[in-house]
Design brief:
Length: 243
């Protein structure tokens, strides 16, 4: 894999690195990326459909908002760092979409449920990934304030998905023993002046999670793991506030 110029420089902060290798990339590929994201993943779909009618949820790192219409009986506030993706997600009325940083989410203790699908693996250090999980859990309604008709007895819950290191049967072929911090190319093609196609490759930073790593990060973030598993090259977990 070509990595020249893609690694953080000795004086580059994690924030600057992620701005260069994550945020700016998604701003540039937003429209093309959105055109490839339309089918809900089964466990995410199930989680959303299990929410009680009238519940209010949060989709952190919503992308093009493909999950907003899964359950018409709930209302979802969607957020993303990419302004261009938020514009696309905002078309899913009556839901709301806004630009927000997943490390500093607004509206603490406000939501019955939350999802963060394929987002946290874009943060380049373990403390920042833990901080993102803590920020997500802080948006949930705690058990003490839960209402029987719309909330689970344990309060709000969050579903988190991250890319797995263990993908030996996928086209990528990663597995135990490979590097966990990788660059993943996104190739965007466009018509050229001569009638052919020009292509441009963008590289996005990913941290590939080992088995058990997501659960450890949730606990370190002050959360409680209620359920977890593996689905199609991803580790997932449903978590609640630990306190």
């Amino acid at each position: 894999m070509e990595t020249s110029g893609l690694e953080p420089t000795p004086v580059e902060s994690p924030e600057a690195y992620e701005e260069r290798q994550v945020h700016k990339v998604y701003e540039q590929i937003a429209s093309h990326f959105s055109s490839t994201r339309y089918k809900p993943w089964p466990i995410v779909e199930q989680f959303l459909k299990e929410q009680s009618p009238g519940s209010v949820g949060l989709d952190v790192g919503c992308g093009n908002g493909k999950y907003l219409a899964v359950n018409s009986d709930v209302f979802i506030v969607a957020s993303d760092r990419s302004e261009n993706l938020v514009k696309i997600a905002g078309k899913h009325q009556p839901h709301s979409a806004l630009v927000a940083d997943n490390l500093f989410l607004p509206h603490p203790c406000s939501f019955d449920f939350a999802i963060s699908i394929a987002v946290i693996h874009h943060l380049s250090t373990q403390p920042r990934r833990v901080q993102a999980i803590a920020s997500l859990l802080e948006t949930l309604i705690p058990r003490a304030k839960a209402q029987p008709l719309t909330h689970a007895a344990s309060g709000g819950t969050a579903l988190i998905y991250v890319w797995a290191l263990e993908q030996k049967h996928s086209r990528r072929g990663w597995d135990e023993g490979d590097q966990q911090d990788v660059m993943v190319p996104w190739i965007m093609k466009a018509p050229s002046d001569d009638g052919g196609q020009d292509s441009k490759t963008f590289h996005r930073y990913y941290h590939l999670y080992r088995q058990g790593e997501l659960e450890r990060d949730i606990v370190e973030a002050g959360g409680k793991v209620m359920e977890s598993g593996y689905e199609k090259d991803n580790w997932w977990a449903i978590a609640s506030q630990g306190r």
